[in-house]
Amino acid sequence: MESSTQAPVSSPWAPLKSSLRPLLDSIYPHQRRPTGLLTPTPMTLQKPQQAAYPGLAKDASGAISQKSAQENSQSSESSQSTKDDMELGNGWTWTSQKEKIILSPYDYIASEPGKEFRTLLLNAFNAWLQVPQESLDIITKVVRMLHTSSLLIDDIQDNSMLRRGRPVAHNIFGVAQTINAGNYVYFLALKELQKLSNPAEAMDIYTTEMLYLHRGQGMDLYWRDTLTCPTEDDYLEMVSNKTGGLFRLAVKLMQSQSPTNFDCLPLAELLGQAFQIADDYKNLANLDYTQKKGLCEDLTEGKFSFPVIHSIRSNPENQELLHILAQRPTDVDTKKYAVRYIESTGSLEYTKELVAILIAKAKEEADAIDAGSDKSKGIHMLLAKLDLK
């Protein structure tokens, strides 16, 4: 545990108040239902018009004549068995073959299933929210799309080598194509939301939480790239934005489609923080992560994870861990040395205690929402998965 004695103000890594205080009793900044909604803009598909650049063919005399747009369309249909619903204004058609090409990096990572924690989370919340199945399917699809596409971008930003036990997508398809695929799926997800009964509200929720997500990611990258150790409170705020953003997006969308009035956002906040900090711990201490992402990959990325932040601030005079992060170590011995140092400052144990507190508060919040209706079993099962004991 951190000492209660404050380090001198002159120290660049002066420890602030411990996170092991009553947590998250402040006002949640994210309201249940957004305001200032946009007016929905209906999407209509235009039938193909005559091509702006019609095909050219020679008649029997050798003179050049124009093919009709219909003839061009029929020719195209004979060579493409399946087409997307988007007809381009110049008569060209976006085909499933082209779609498959640009989605290859996304399909590559999606083909190797993850833990599906977020899908299980949606089903657990739906025990209370009772979202119609058609709407729930759309929301589940959108959340999966956003999560998977964000992994493509994260792996590039973190210079990762493994994802789910396989080479990262950008080492297979290249950085440029992988970035394009990740960004493209963000917009496909937005298009999916237009199928909901409240497209304007859904788009407002999407925009708000995607902004939070990118703000959190931006601060995480800034600390890493400038070797700036944040405070524990700064880190918790970042996690609320980065990891909590997708959790809140899912719950807000569900609440907007729900016939009930349950407010599950505080619980989603707690789950997001517990999930990320437990992940920080496992990255340094869990053999399963070594096999799927590499040994202590957070150290190789130079990431200020929660145990690292606590360790640095526990002994501001010793800057060994900072120097190790600056080197972005790849060798096993250096990373094992760093983990031993983190253990020596009590930071792994401290992280376990914080996760336990977050889980306990989440259980209390779930039971308060449930109010004896016996519908919180799914949430309790997910919380058990986060337990580090």
UniProtKB/TrEMBL annotation:
Record GO biological process: alcohol biosynthetic process; isoprenoid biosynthetic process; mycotoxin biosynthetic process
An MF annotation (GO) of this entry: metal ion binding
Record field: compositional bias (Low complexity): 34-45, 65-81
Pfam family name, one: polyprenyl_synt
Annotated spans, Disordered: 30-90
UniProt-listed Gene3D superfamilies: Farnesyl Diphosphate Synthase (1.10.600.10)
Protein keywords: Magnesium, Metal-binding, Transferase
Family as reported in the entry's similarity comment: Belongs to the FPP/GGPP synthase family.
Name of the molecule in the record: Dimethylallyltranstransferase
Organism per entry: Xylaria multiplex
